[in-house]
Amino acid sequence: MSAPERFRLPLSTLTAVATGQVGHADLALLRSSQRSRLLLTLAAILAHREEPAKTARRDAEGPTRPAAAWDVLAHVQRQDPSAVEAVLEDPCVGSWAFPLLRRLRHGAAAAGTRVPPWAEASLFAALAGAAAVRAGVRATVRIPAYHGRVWLPSLGVTDSVGRGPWAVATLEHGPHGTVVFGGQGSVRLPDDPARPADGWHPLPRPGGPGGPYGEGSVTLDHLSPFRDFRSLADPVALSPRTLERWHELLADSEALLRRDQPEAHRLVTGALRTIVPVDGPSALQPVSATVPDAHGAVTMSLPLDAAAMAAILVHEARHQLLSALADLTPLFVPVHEGPEPTYFAPWRADARPLRGLLFGAHAFTGVMSFWLTQRTADQDRAEFESALHHRQVRTALAQLRNAAGQLTRAGGLVVEGIAASFHRHGPLEPVTTPPRRLAELAHDDEQAAWRVAHLAVDPEEATALARRLLAGRQAPAHLPPARMRPAASRAAHPSGGQAPRTWLARLRCTDGEAFAAARRELGKPHASPAAVKDATLGDAQLVAGETDAALDWFRGRPGSVQAWIGAGLAHRAGSARLLRQRPELVLALHHALRDLGAAPPAAEELAAWLDSRPTPAGSDAQGVDVAVGPDAIGRVPGGLVIDTQHAAE
Q1: Are 344 and 446 a contacting pair, CB within 8 Å?
Q2: Are 317 and 268 spatial neighbours (Cβ–Cβ below 8 Å)?
Q3: What is the tens place of the pLDDT at every residue in 336-349?
Q4: Would you kindly state where each structural domain of the chain is located, as residue ranges?
Q5: pLDDT-based confidence at residue 306 (cuts at 50, 70, 90)
Q6: Which tens digit of pLDDT belongs to each residue from 560-574?
Q7: What one-character DSSP code corresponds to residue 339?
Q8: Rounded to whole angstroms, what are the CA distances from 50 to 103, 121, 518?
Q9: 455, 483 in Cβ contact below 8 A?
Q10: What is the DSSP letter of 53?
Q11: What is the structure's pLDDT at 427?
């Protein structure tokens, strides 16, 4: 038997992935590579020396041995290859297989799945049973069952037929149908396993086989034990109304993309197979995620409407696209010494590794493009979202250019593709409308909050500043730089990890009446609308454009760093702008004064004193946007990498 041929990655496909303009051939190549990756993983699990000696149960009631289940799978493939393909295309197969191989090879924990050793590899029997049912091939297999429920990948799960956290159940499929039985009951599957029956729960397929997002239809997976990607999960019931809402939004978002954005439609339909419904804070604040182990799956909560769903699916499909590319060619130079550098990602409150920064920039470039196209139909919201993402991607690109030495040639080409796609949309439009003003405010707010949480000024340098102030001297021309805090000493995000002002701005641009109601609610004592967690009346006033009222509110909370940043946002071009641009320096000066036994002036006064210094000749420290990365700390005044309009555009 000849050695398997390696995948060849054409430069055209790499470029297509980088720009998000993928064709059918590019998508077919990436799908094929993911299929091969999974098959190689399954073969490696089978060949591992610990199987069968250490992982199989030795009693007669044990599950079908992996090698025997593999023989069943091979037999079914000879009879009906499409049945096996349908089973392997279930993303949860990858969620089971890839962590298992890592544990077998490297001793790593299998993602907290809590699968006992005897059951791990024996779940091959579930694949074999599902394929046999699909193909109508006679088979009998004994399957490990989590909480007694038998999982048949791509089909669904049974009710419990066994006892305990893990049981073994038997599946028999023959001319008279399919029966699953165990120590405490049995379930007969319907002739059409896509239909529900007593004890049988099929994976919902909105629209049926010809439904939205792909030839095989998208699947809603609220049943599979491996759908959580982090730990095992029991099935969760979806109410008829919730299921109907998922169906509506999937159909409407597919129609929107097909009609208005054919490139994005091709990407989403080519990459998406499964949606895992989860709970989110609210429809205005949906959550979503993808992981490389479950290619084709998106975990998400119900969004507000079809446009929001389409934007999320574009975002997550781009993640899957780049992840599949990264499986074919390295994008990053390995870090062999010291901790992995982390960066400011404008869409996150935590400090992100280079991979997170690159993947986020790639995804949000696609989301920016989506909302730019959507402006005719959804003007205020689309204008806000596109302007916000434009600023975020521009800031991220500045840092990616700084980190060029940590990228491989392929990674550099991805950055070039992102930049080309970004610049194709032209420069940032002037801040002349409320949505654009709110986008600028949201971006500056997130950047300032991130700086407070992750950057610090050397205490000795802060003390020197404090002594100058107390002596009545002017601030120095060169302000102390900021440096990344060690991970163990990073401060909590000033807003508790949330972005209340961003969400209020989004609410105002999406539903003016709902924003007005939230503002009224925030005006009441001890109020905090559930739709926008941790928001304050001052935040709502700032977002509403009531600058003077917002300033009064923020000034009344002198101990709140979040209020300090709010005051800096309200001032914009005033003397307190360093509350927005360098809040970590103002905070360091405040602490130094207090440590010296002095009563610190108001935060605005500290910012004004720092900003009263003469600007050094040739300094670019007052650039439009700042992007903070570890490579840049201490390189220019304030430890900032300046991303001015000129540099970015």
Answers
A1: no
A2: yes
A3: 877 889 999 999 99
A4: 23-202, 204-316, 434-614
A5: very high
A6: 999 999 999 998 666
A7: P
A8: 11, 10, 59
A9: yes
A10: T
A11: 87
